[in-house]
Amino acid sequence: MSDHPWWTSAVVYQIWPRSFADSDSDGIGDLGGILARLDYLADLGVDVVWLSPVYPSPQDDFGYDISDYQDIDPLYGTLAQFDGLLAAVHERGMRLILDVVLNHTSDEHPWFVESRSGPDSPKRDWYWWRQRPNNWRSFFSEPAWTLDAGSGEYYLHLFSAKQPDLNWENPQVRQAIYAMLRWWLDRGVDGFRMDVINMISKDPALPDGWVPPGESLGHGFPHFLYGPRIHEYLQEMHREVFGGREGTFLTVGEMPGVSVEQARRYTDPARGEVDMVFQFDHVGLDHGPGGKYDVRPLDLRALKASFGHWQRGLAEVGWNSLYWDNHDQPRIVSRWGDDGEHRTRSAKALAALLHLHRGTPFIYQGEELGMTNYPFASLEEIVDIEGLNYAREALQSGADACDVLDAVRARGRDNARTPMQWDDGPDAGFTTGTPWLPVNPNYTTVNAAAQRDDPESVLGHYRRLVELRHTLPVVVHGDFTMLMPDDAQVYAFTRRWQDTELLVLVNVSGEPATAVLGELDRWTDAELMLGGPDPTLPSVDSPAGSVGLQPWEHRVLRRVVDG
Ligand code: TEU
């Protein structure tokens, strides 16, 4: 299927540079560190590297507050080093995409410094200034408006007060952004991950949002998550940035709150917007009414309903991205797996479940090792602005300190941001200095060196999953059928492409399980592609016509369809 875009058979690896590898012993990861570890990524087999922001930044939100779009933060290196890294990525046959934050800048960006200088500034209108704020709450708990004492006006920030929102209504803003993106493409980058890109078009009236009972601030979502000009902006950006360019690019838009129907529009190739989006439905399934820190267990049936809905919705038009982890999410093995007794088995089971869906899988640094959440012992150890603000507000409104700590331990973004665990040496081989965030104490057993040559390891398993995507067209192109939608323990589906069918069975639990499938005899002579029963564990009996699965077992079968 050469008419399919290259990224349909690609796997992307996300690097969060601050915690990947440190080459200059300041305890913070950097470009030199990434360069030294590129062979690790090539060996894993990934096609694309996504770099979280490395631009100059006050680091209020660890780089998602950019003060200069066209340089590298000295913490991470120089532009010359970046060019060297890009060349080295390309030499290994991989591509590199940059994370661009286009909804907001840092308040220290010269554009905002100019804008804030007064109501008559030529850049005043580059941001959202109002004499009276509306009632929106920001994503980081606080009000979404901050008073600028100098002018007596308020500016809008959907995230921290140090991340003012750009006003995309202003064509000069859009042109400045497009020019900047072209500048990076001219340097050779292969595309972009676009931060909260569905928020760039706002209802210019900025109406108040709905206020949940007992709260003082409102939800502005309906007024900025799918704004009136969003498709116009994305199409214009695509045209202005990629138009007339030869090359093989990838764009992925991060879109909190996006629906399947919207995603189909965003990713319909005929519309020229983005190649794929990050949707948030599945990572919200264990949130209670109070949001992400209102921790609930996952109901596997809800996950099936959600993934099934997305697989169906983008089957004919558009494309899925597939992810468990990123720098904002807790570690999947701690979240929906078992980071104790069954750490390896559950990490592998969850990986097989995700990667064999239709879509482009994203692997977040350390996920391929089965890295776990960090055992935070106190709120004092938290550094992320989202977690800190949540905890402060919850404590102020009388929440129990132990409950708040539990919530942050389960959900805090710092979990994903502890240093990458390379080996069992000091600080896991991440740095020879003092790491900026502590290394998870389990690094002595959970590390890349211990897994590199072990095909049964989590790392070996991810390598195999990448290889299956590269070598089995059914993984890339096959249609998708969910089986056993009402079973709370077994996740099962088939994929079919031409004369090949794949069956994926995953026991998403630490107890033995039974998969009841129709026409099971079709699979009698099928080839086992991955997983299967572990002879060192007790075998699981099952009634005729069903398959017994050991705790956290995954099993992937392939058969040739006759006729
Ligand atoms: O995240 C988007 C976003 O909505 C976050 O608030 C996310 O939903 C939350 O962290 C999940 O708990 C992007 C970036 O990925 C994140 O790191 C940034 O903080 C945010 O945008 C602002 O740029």
Briefly summarize what is shown.
The chain has 563 residues and is an alpha/beta fold. It is 26% helix and 16% strand. Helix 5 (171-187) packs parallel to helix 6 and helix 11 (385-396) runs antiparallel to helix 12.
Question: How much is the average pLDDT?
Answer: 97
Biggest beta sheet attributes: 8 strands, parallel
Level of helix content? 25-40%
Number of helices: 15
Rg, Cα atoms, Å: 24 Å
**What fraction strand?**
15-25%
Terminal-residue CA separation: 21 Å
What structural category do the secondary elements indicate?
alpha/beta
Oligomerization = single chain
| Ligand types | 1-O-alpha-D-glucopyranosyl-D-fructose
**Count of distinct strands:** 20
Protein architecture, described:
By secondary structure, this protein is an alpha/beta fold. The protein has helices at 31-36, 38-44, 79-91, 110-116, 171-187, 230-242, 260-267, 300-313, 332-335, 343-355, 385-396, 401-411, 448-451, 458-471, 473-477; strands spanning 12-15, 48-51, 95-100, 129-130, 145-148, 153-156, 191-194, 250-254, 276-278, 287-288, 291-295, 321-323, 360-364, 479-483, 490-497, 500-507, 513-516, 527-531, 546-549, 554-560. The strands form 5 sheets. An 8-stranded parallel beta sheet has the order 9-8-7-3-2-1-13-12, covered by helices on one side. A hairpin with a 6-residue loop joins β14 and β15. α5 (171-187) packs parallel to α6, α10 packs parallel to α14 (458-471) and α11 (385-396) runs antiparallel to α12. The longest helix is centred in the N-terminal third of the chain and has 17 residues, at 171-187. 1-O-alpha-D-glucopyranosyl-D-fructose (TEU) binds next to loops.
